[in-house]
């Protein structure tokens, strides 16, 4: 399962964004930010307590099941006056959820979190970015490990000179992508693949912002 | 003596290497300001003692005067520059554009690098580019020069005429991929190689053995990188804090056991011993002397290493310096 990985903004930044808004309604999300402990029930309650203590009127709070889902708008509309009387919605979901709510409710929104990456849970409580959706996938030639994502420089033709005992030169907590790829290809008996000169990336794979539509014959394009 | 090869460009470095001489290169870091006189001063110190001077491109990601302008200044001061270019800060349009700018001043050497990560420098929160990597940059410059075509396929009027180089780090891990990686850089277009600073001679010799086993020393020119220690502290720092540099404990101990006032001299002695050993290794075609913020010592190192005077390309019939053939 992929998850939006978020981190709470600093209290100073949240307070600055809420400056001039006396009445605040807080929305958490029951999916990714609940799992990452950045916008579930306990975090929403803690935010409510802090803001009340700081002199804001918290008109109400809720945790929607999936903030980025279309149904979120309907769920929130049913809440009624505690929500509609707020000056601002403080949203503790990823930016997908914030944008979904902003487009559906036409109210001022303030994100309480920064969205860091779309990640995969690789061990309990540990999330890693393994795909950056570049649009030109080369992992068929790198043993199923993406160097565009896993290498800090996004190098596609092998490691730089800074590999440090299998770790990245800039972060000893992170594995060197190319050491992982080397070990995987060695295991698979496919080291020859490392000889391949990868051409410069086609950044037109899907120009940002990406858009995708199902065709009338049912196929995606 | 090495077999002579035919130079393909009018690069002084290429001519010296093709003639079979042991080449001597050094580097000059541009200042963190706009005072070009600093470059001329550093250049004057090196002039006559080296064949070409590398001009670093915002090394360690610290913002500096650009390598292109610095190369032009050094060329105007009578030195032949090696323009270093990293892929960290510019996309393929900007890189090609700067290569043409350099070529318009007849800068005849380029070193294609990936570049240190921006988190080491003064713009830690900045975005890196890496639209292409060092391997692809090599290929791009080769295409611009040999086929006269931009990466997009259009023709270049007056293509750049550059001798094209790359860096190699024989010491980074996994060690087993370091020779194949060199082969890949050569396949991409690297005509000369400057290595990471060499302290671990056994490892370097093992790497060179692998290089010779594949005949790679005949497909490119390998310049061995050396950096003298100024102090024992520097040796310790390079051992433990600089990724990809391998300083054996015995060298650190040798520096530490030397009284403080004699450490600089000991550092030079180690550097000279290293050069002597490197001269014996078949396939080593010259030396890249990186005296970090110690450029004034380069003439002394060159002289004491028996690498002075430098070959005069104008003078006919000069015998190249002896190189190992075993």
State the main characteristics.
heterodimer, A: 221 residues, alpha/beta, 4-stranded parallel β-sheet, 3-stranded antiparallel β-sheet, 23% strand, B: 326 residues, 8-stranded parallel beta barrel
How would you characterize the overall build of this protein?
The complex is a heterodimer of chains A (221) and B (326). Chain A has helices spanning 11-17, 32-35, 41-53, 71-77, 81-84, 95-105, 147-150, 177-187, and strands at 2-8, 23-29, 57-64, 88-92, 109-111, 113-123, 126-128, 167-168, 171-175. With 221 residues, chain A is of the alpha/beta class. A four-stranded parallel β-sheet of chain A has the order 3-2-4-5, with helices on both faces. In chain A, helix 6 (95-105) links the parallel strand 4 (88-92) and strand 5. In chain A, helix 4 packs across helix 6 (95-105). Helix content of chain B is 37%, strand content 14%. An eight-stranded parallel beta barrel of chain B has the order 1-2-3-4-5-6-7-8, surrounded by six helices. The longest helix of chain B is centred in the last third of the chain and has 17 residues, at 263-279. Chain A binds chain B through residues 152-166, 169-170, 179, 182-183, 194-195, 197-201, 203, and chain B through 88, 92, 114, 116-117, 119-120, 128, 130-136, 139-140, 151, 167-169, 172-174, 176-177, 180-181, 183-184, 187-188, 196, 243-244.
Topology, element by element:
The complex is a heterodimer of chains A (221) and B (326).
Chain A: E1 2-8, H1 11-17, E2 23-29, H2 32-35, H3 41-53, E3 57-64, H4 71-77, H5 81-84, E4 88-92, H6 95-105, E5 109-111, E6 113-123, E7 126-128, H7 147-150, E8 167-168, E9 171-175, H8 177-187
Parallel strand pairs in A: 2-3, 2-4, 4-5
Antiparallel strand pairs in A: 1-6, 6-7, 8-9
Helix pairs in contact in A: 4-6
Chain B: H1 12-18, E1 23-28, H2 37-46, E2 52-55, H3 67-76, E3 81-86, H4 92-104, E4 109-113, H5 134-147, E5 163-168, H6 178-188, E6 192-197, H7 201-213, E7 221-226, H8 232-241, H9 249-256, H10 263-279, E8 284-289, H11 298-304
Parallel strand pairs in B: 1-2, 1-8, 2-3, 3-4, 4-5, 5-6, 6-7, 7-8
